[in-house]
Protein 1
Amino acid sequence: MKTQVRADVDLGKKRERAKRDSSDSESVKCVEGLNHLPALKARCPDTRMVGVGDRESDVYEVFAAERPAGMDWLIRAACDRCIAHPERYPWDTVTASAPLGEIELELPAHRKMARRTARLTLRCTQVIASA
C-alpha cells in the first residue's frame, strides 16, 4: 500500500511537479499500488473494497487496469475526458445525478484566500472510460 503526503513547502508548485520525470510522478505511484490489490482482496474475499484516489489517480492506466471482483474506485476527477455514457463527459454525467448529501464548511483564511464558506455536494454515478 502506498500513500503520499506532500510537504507544506511543496504546496502550490504544480508547474514544478509537471516538469519531473514521469517515473517519479504521483500518478505512477497510484498505478504501482494496483499491483497490491489481488493479494489484498485474497486476504479479505468477502469484503467489498473501494480504492480512493485524488486527482493524481485520474489517469487512464488506473481505469484500464484489471481489478478484482468486489473492488471499486472513487476518484476525484482531474480531466473531463470522453466516456461511454449518454452524457459523454464525466463532469456532466455526475452533475446530472441526484445529490446524495451536502455540507457547508467554514474555511479559514489561507495564503491569499480570505476566510470563506465552502459548500460540498456528494454525487455518485458509474462511468465507463472509453478506450
Note: Residues 26-33 form the longest helix (8 residues).
Protein 2
Amino acid sequence: MRRPALCLAIACAALLSLPAAVSVTAVAHAAQISRDSVDWQAAPVRLLMVEAKGCIYCAAWNREIGPGYPKSAEGKAAPLLVTDIDGPWPDGVVLDRRPTITPTFILLQNGDEVARLEGYPGDQFFYPLIDDMLSKAGLQAADMREDG
C-alpha cells in the first residue's frame, strides 16, 4: 500500500523541481501590447504583473496603483504587462523561476528577469520597491519624474 504513495511523492517532487531558468514562450496578454508578440525594442524594460482570478491583493493593486501606474515615472520606465498565473505568457520571456504567488511583479529587460517582487506590499511601499528594482536594472525612475 505504501508503494503508490511513494510513487506519488516522487512524481510530485519531480514536478516541483524547476530548472534554474524557465523559458516561457506564448502569446502576450496586456493593455497596449500586440497579442502576437512583445516589442522589446520599443520598450526594452517592462514590469510583468502575474495575477490570478479572485486574488484580493491583485484587486487592491488594480484599485490603488493600477490607474496611475502608466503615468508614473516607474510606469514610463517599465510599461506594464499583465498575465494570468496560468498563462498565456508574453512571448520570449525567460524567468528565474515560475511564479507561485499573486500578484508577482517581475522586472524584465529584453525579456529576461532582472528583479522580482512577490506579493503586493501596499500603496505606501510599492513604488519604493519598484524603484529599487529599476535601480538594479540600471534605470532611475526618479530621474524621469516631471517637476511640478
Note: DSSP finds four helices and six strands in the chain.
Protein 3
Amino acid sequence: MSTFVELLSPHPSIDGGSGTLSTVPAPSPRYPTRYSACAETRLLPGFSSTPLPRTGWTVTASDQETTGENGAAVHVLDGNASTCWRSKWSGTAVPLPHSITIDMHKTDTVAALKYLPRTSSSNGRIGRFEIHASPDGTNWGAAVATGTWADNALEKTTGFTPVATRFIRLTAITEAGHGGPGPAPPNSI
C-alpha cells in the first residue's frame, strides 16, 4: 500500500470523498494479521498549502519489510509515490498497530496530514488511525487527530489544531477493508 502523508493548514477531516467510514473485519484464520503501507509523507505548515521542505528529514518505523521486498521506511520521504514503506510481512509478520515517525530535525508548525493509499492494491490501506506530535520524540501526549479513513485509493486529508513540533507519528490501528495476506504481497505502514 502506498501512502502519502502531508501536513496542511487547519480544516475538517475529509475522508477522500465517500462520506462514509469503512468497516474492518476481525482477523480470521485466512487473514490473521493486518498490514499497513505508506508511499510518501509530506508535512505542511500552518495555513500554507506548500509542503514543508523535507531536506534533512529522517523517518523511522515500528517495523518494516526489508526481506521479502524493499519496503523500508525511508520511502515515505523519497518523493516517489511508487515506492512505499510496508510493515513486516515476511517470516513472522508483526501485528498492528504499525507506525512511522518523521523527525524534521527542527521545530515547525504542522496542522494537517495527507495520506495517499497504495493504488495498486487494497492491501495495507490504513483504516483507523492516530496522529501524534512530539517536541522531543519521547513525550507524545494525546493524539492531535484520530479517525477512520475510507477503504479507497483516494487521498485523505485530516486537519487538526496547529502544533509546533519536531516529530510527527502516524499510527495505523486497523487496516481498511478486507486486507490481510492474499495473492499480492501484503503491505503496511
Note: The two ends are 8 Å apart (CA to CA).
Protein 4
Amino acid sequence: MFEPPSQLKEENNSRGHGTCKCSQEILAEITNGFSQDQKDAITAAGFGSLLKLKELEIRRDLCKDIAGCFDLETEEFIINGKRLKLSMKDVQHILGLPSQGDKIKEPPQKHVPCLFQKYTWKDDTKISSKSLREFFNKNSSYGDDFIRIFVLYTIGFYLCPTLQPYVK
C-alpha cells in the first residue's frame, strides 16, 4: 500500500562531501536496499539495468576538469596532449549500464497535475529528494506508485539533475 512520507528530518551528511544532488553511489546504495519484489518490479518496468549500477563515487572536480578538456568540434577529450574518443562501450564499462536495447521514444507531452500532486506530499509545488528517499527507506511496496517514485528519483536526481534538491 502506498504511504507518503511523514515528517521530514534534515539529512545528516556524514560523508563530508557537501550537498550532493547527483550521485551514482547514492542511487546504487538505495537500490541495494530494495527487496527482491521491488527489484523484480523495476526490471519488469524496463529499468533493470539501473539495478546494476556500481557504488562509484564520481569526483566532481575531476569531472569538471575533464569536461573542460572536451573538443566540441572533434568530439574528443584532449588529456595531456593526447586525443581520446569515448564509445558507448566505454560508457557501459565505466558506469556499468548497458549500451544497447530498445530505442527510447519520447512520450506524448501531457500535463497531469493530479499525478504530480500525488507525490508532492508536503509542498504542492515540488517533489523533494528527501521525501523520495524517505519513501524508499520506509516502504516495502513495489506497485505502480513505487515504480513512479523510482523513475522520478532516477530522472530528477541522477540522469537529469539540476542544482535544486527537488523535481518541479
Note: Confidence is low (pLDDT under 50) at residues 1-20.
